[in-house]
Amino acid sequence: MTLMEIRCRRMSSLALCAVNAMFSFMNSDAKRKKQPEVYVSVTESLKKVYKQKLLPLEEHYKFHEFHSPPLEDPDFDAKPMILLSDFPGMRIGPEPTTDRFIVVMYGEQDGTIPGNALVVDTKRQFRPLSRFGNAFLNRFQCSQLDSEVLKSLTIVDTPGILSGEKQRIDRGYDFVGVLEWFAERVDRIILLFDAHKLDISDEFRRCIEAVGGNEDKVRIVLNKADMVDHQQLMRVYGALMWSLGKVFKTPEVARVYIGSFWDKPLHHDINRRLFEDEQHDLFVDLQGLPRNAALRKLNDLIKRARLAKVHAYIISYLRKDMPSMMGKEKRKKELIQNLDKIYEQLQREHNISPGDFPDLKRMQEQLQHHDFSKFNSLKPKLIEMVDGMLSSDIARLMSHLPQEEHVIKPERSFVKGGAFSEIRETPFSFGQGEGVNAGADEPQWVVGKERYKWDETFQQLGPVDGKITGAIAKAHMVKSKLPNSVLSKIWKLSDVDKDGMLDLDEFALANYLINLKLDGHEMPVELPEHLLPPSKRVPQIG
């Protein structure tokens, strides 16, 4: 049973795809020793830069009490996700399984780790979750599984989202706060909706709002799309986009994948090709996460640094405006009430983008529980240290990324195993037997099946010594109304011997490729071996 199948049997849920790429698993120990400077450059430098330049600013202005716990080494080392076999401790059923957060990680032996044990493990990145208390930890667990996929990915599955009257029942812990913590640290956030039961409850709305500021990580899956016909699917898609437009505060539209992720027969087969294309795109997106994880860490650290700077300005301003003796409580209330004006003033004074400021209402609520007189005044040196980090250290690390990608073997920078490998090299793999791949497994030249239509045309064009010139071929090819850029690519693929002319076989190949393009297929960068005309193939020796 696949993870996607599990999702299909649940009501709308939110899946946080925790994807913190860990480059250490991608190479052997020997490889690491040979190239330590390049290999550890990004991950180790991120740790060093954070501890030396950003952490002092966060601690000085109580950043961790307002926004996010301090980052630890496991936050930088942890890894990326997708599973296709059952994992220990899972529960499935038609009802929402609303009881727990489950982290699915790689382990040599299958088993589960309860939440209380998980948060005291210094080798894992979940220690800060202990602040959410026993009510949460009792509903938090890690399931370990010996899966090839989990060697490069980690899954965080959230509880099912409640709807209707059930959502009024308190979970006993800060559910939205837990989601926010995960959203800051994952590489991909997947919001899962059922096409036949589209419902954005108030709790789901709060969950979506909890991932605010991380919209670039969000992907949306419209699941069970085979349960509705093509006309209903169009309406459901429109309703989903309309609903999400009211929740997301960004002008960009989140990427939506439409599909039916289970192994049962499709109820409505009319959209089969659409589902296959969408599933392929989703898997490609997830498969490339390890390759881009270091860049994601850099991006998240930059966002954190910008927020920490703004937070420092806010805290120091509030400290400066507090009286030294009398009327402290009254002044505190005035400052909190006028926090929006303070935002505007700081924005002008320090040339800060409005998007860098924390949420106004939430900041006002948090400030009520703090003593402003205990805040620290502004230390320009700490601000300058973070500015230097953003301007020089981050730029240096960015330049190291291409080197690190070059060191890592290409096959190790993508997710392998499971659903990513099981259908490859079979007739059912994506695009197999279609487009330029058609006829790859056949003994006969696939172009030869249709060449009778083009052989007569070739003779009518008046070949000389069995070939037509480029000018004559162009006059024929432009009748397809394809752009010159596409026809130029087709010409280069068809002119196999590169003599600037086309013989009978090459002319047939050119027309075959034109028809493929007209049918909506993409052109290859290089001509596949099976499309090479038999007359142009190098004879096999031995």
Automatic annotation (TrEMBL):
Residues 450-538 form the EH domain. Residues 482-517 form the EF-hand domain. Keywords: ATP-binding, Calcium, Cell membrane, Endosome, Membrane, Metal-binding, Nucleotide-binding, Phosphoprotein. GO terms for biological process: endocytosis; endosomal transport. One of its GO terms (cellular component) is endosome membrane. The keyword Transcription regulation does not apply. GO terms for molecular function: ATP binding; calcium ion binding; GTP binding. It holds the Pfam family EHD_N. CDD domains: EH, EHD. Residues 59-290 form the Dynamin-type G domain. Its main location: membrane. It is a peripheral membrane protein. The keyword Metal-binding applies. It comes from the Eukaryota. It is found in: Cell membrane; Endosome membrane. This is EH domain-containing protein. It comes from Trichuris muris (Mouse whipworm).
